[in-house]
Amino acid sequence: MSLDGKVAIVTGSGRGLGLAYSQELARRGASVVVNDVDEQTAADAVASIEAAGGKAVAVVAPVGPTETARKLVAAAVESFGRLDILVTNAGVLRDTVLWKMSDDDFDTVVNVHLRGTFTCVREAVTYMREHEVAGRIVCIGSPTGQRGNFGQTNYAAAKAGIVGMVRTWALELKRAGITVNAVIPVAATAMTATVPYFAAAVEADAAGEAMPAFFRHDLGFGTSDDVAGLIAYLASDAAAGVTGQAIGIGGDRLQVWSHPEAVATAYRDGGWSYDALDADFTAEFGGQLQTVGETFPPLPDGLQR
Predict the structure, then answer these.
(1) Pairing between strand 179-185 and 246-250?
(2) How many CA atoms does the CB half-sphere of 173 hold within 13 Å?
(3) Closest by CA position to 97, among listed 87, 89, 106
(4) Which DSSP letter does residue 187 get?
(5) What predicted TM-score, i.e. pTM, was given to this entire model?
(6) Contact 29, 79 (CB under 8 A)
(7) Is residue 212 a contact partner of residue 303, using CB atoms and an 8 Å limit?
(8) DSSP states of 133-202 as a string?
(9) What is the pLDDT of residues 226-237, one digit of tens each?
(10) pLDDT in tens, 55-112
(11) Which residue among 16, 136, 178, 204 is the one 20 to 30 A from 304 at the CA level?
(12) Smallest Cα–Cα separation from 189: which of 253, 254, 140, 121?
């Protein structure tokens, strides 16, 4: 698989998952526009790509505003002559429970994740459609957006919204030959490093050691590099028939998430009044109510911290 001659933008790519995505795209032959809010971090990311023989430039700007989206596309075209791939990875966290979450906590996270994805994709596909580029859009989601997570109202809303936009854009861009997919990564990051349950895996990754098989196989929890291959695949010509999907990856596990579907249906002549619901709801649906959040099995002996 080669991305020779392709040009990619990866937002939030100065470190962590975003950096791994950029490095893998460059290793496959793409020229990359790196993005971060910190100038030195962005410069270091570019240097790491160039040291491995790749091509990259940096745009230092916060994702969210339309101005940043325009800068990113302009940098791709001015530096490398075109734009083929966009990976929207930039994000921030402001975790707290609902009753303590401020307007700023909510707006900051939604602005970067949700609005930033919208503005960057809008700018990228405007270029792709105008220049008849059968482009690739990869938007980064999260298990939190699929299942919910305690203390992450803002993040859950943004990540769920991204998957909703991906499904819509796949419909709108099909005729142009532009694919749009969401990737749901499960990997050692700054966020998972704070969770005691993952401590043994995070510590192994930080030490350059293999993660215990329990994490990689049973939980589908791995490294940033484990996710990067899927990003490159979805950015390639090989994935031309894959669009509108939410694909989970982590460790040794690859998943396709289902679109929301009704799990139980009941009909009643004349409709469902309060009295009818009171009488029949539990009988009809009590065994079909869905769980929320994620649950994990107990850690095996020797992996507790």
Answers:
(1) parallel
(2) 31
(3) 106
(4) B
(5) 0.96
(6) no
(7) yes
(8) ---EEEEE--HHHHH--TTBHHHHHHHHHHHHHHHHHHHHHTTTT-EEEEEEE-B--TTGGG-GGGHHHH
(9) 999 999 999 999
(10) 999 999 999 999 999 999 999 999 999 999 999 999 999 999 999 999 999 999 999 9
(11) 16
(12) 140
Handedness of CA 197, 203, 205, 210 (dihedral sign): negative
Q: Is 135 exposed, middle or buried (0-12, 13-18, 19+ CB in 10 A)?
A: buried
Do residues 36 and 57 lie in contact, with contact meaning Cβ atoms separated by under 8 Å?
no
Closest among 39, 87, 86, 91 to 60, alpha carbons compared = 39
Only one residue has tokens 């989970």, namely 248
- Which residue matches tokens 């005691």? 196
What distance in Å separates the CA atoms of residue 249 and residue 185, rounded to the nearest whole number? 5
Neighbours of 13 (CB within 10 A): 32
* Pairing state between β 85-88 and 136-140: parallel
Look at the block and give the residue holding tokens 């192994």: 204
Length of the chain: 305
Count of beta carbons in the 10 Å neighbourhood of residue 282: 11
On the question of pLDDT at 305 being above 80, the answer is no
Q: What pairs with residue 8 in β-bridges?
A: 32, 85
Point out which residues pair with 91 in neighbouring strands. none
Domains and CATH numbers, the chain: 7-187+223-257 (3.40.50.720)
CB 285 within 8 A of CB 264: yes
| Sequence-separated (6 or more) residues with CB below 8 Å from residue 229 | 24
Token pair, residue 278, equals: 């009171």
- Residue with the two structure tokens 């091509």: 55
Active site residues: 142, 155, 159
Q: How far apart are CA 123 and CA 78, in angstroms?
A: 15
| CA separation for the pair 156, 143 (Å, rounded) | 9
